[in-house]
Amino acid sequence: MPAKIHAPTPANLRRLAKVLQRGELVAIPTETVYGLAGHALDARACRAIFRAKGRPASDPLIVHVLDLPHAEQLAEFNATARRVARKFWPGPLTLVLPRRACVPDIVTSGGPTVALRSPAHPLARRLLQLARIPLAAPSANPFSYISPTSAAHVQQGLGRRIPHILDGGESAVGVESTVLDLTDPTKPVILRPGAIDEKMLGRFLRRKVRVRTGAKPQGLLRAPGLLEKHYSPRTPLRLLRRPVTASAQHAVILQRQPAGKAAPHTYWLSTRGALAEIAHNLYRVLRETDAAGYREIFIEPVPPTAGGLAAAINDRIRRATAK
User: Fold this and answer.
1) What is the chain's alpha carbon radius of gyration, rounded to the nearest angstrom?
2) What tens digit of pLDDT does each residue of 18-37 get?
3) Residue 295's domain spans which residues?
4) What's the total number of domains in the chain?
5) Which of 157, 159, 173, 305 has the fewest CB neighbours in a 10 Å radius?
6) Each residue of 86-121: pLDDT tens digit?
């Protein structure tokens, strides 16, 4: 039986909050992408998330909380982490910190740290208020496939594996949150780039924030989204390194709308090359081309000097094109 898509009425939000309290799963909207939510302190519910996604147990979950006081019940916050949370929460920033004993091993993949975020989407926040529990919520898609940015995307990927989807419209940001490791507050490091970049964090902290390179992670993963291949369409995706003629066999995705009349089988992520628009449309266009029956898809990266969201966009493209 396909998942039921619920309109965001007050009655439905109350109903879905009770579903989450019982340990069942609900796909929920956030400002980044849609997440597959379950009771974060219920190991059974978290195991159901892994099963539904086909996710390996070695890939930890991000836990969503309403605010800093709720987060401090799950992790040991240092002074720097508190300052960062007060500045950037609610929003697309995940903090990695030492876990407390109440967090089940399955959430952290057996590691000593937990990844926490306070989402800004009003429906996600209302569910957290009503359910009064922390919610583990990785992206609501089959493992390693393109993340969903609408309820329809969730239905296409997990519609026969989960019971409930809350429709909150399109996700505003379109790529997953920045993941910042603050276990050592003197050496902040971004494990996964997102909308909140190292310059924003560095200016606030008045210190250099290192960005982890794309090298293969060693040992236990501290956060999701760190595997070499991720966010990938089923159709082979290649970086556009030289001009390619778009055809019925080869789709081409450009960062901005071409001047004049666009060639057939050519797609673009933004009308003028705006980074926020590119990020917002990235996963939708990847899904559209993946479903169109092409033999290969070529995608143009963003100039790394563009700053801001460029690092996050290129990170997702690099992982999606990994062999």
Assistant:
1) 19
2) 999 999 999 999 999 999 99
3) 237-321
4) 2
5) 305
6) 999 999 999 999 999 999 999 999 999 999 999 999
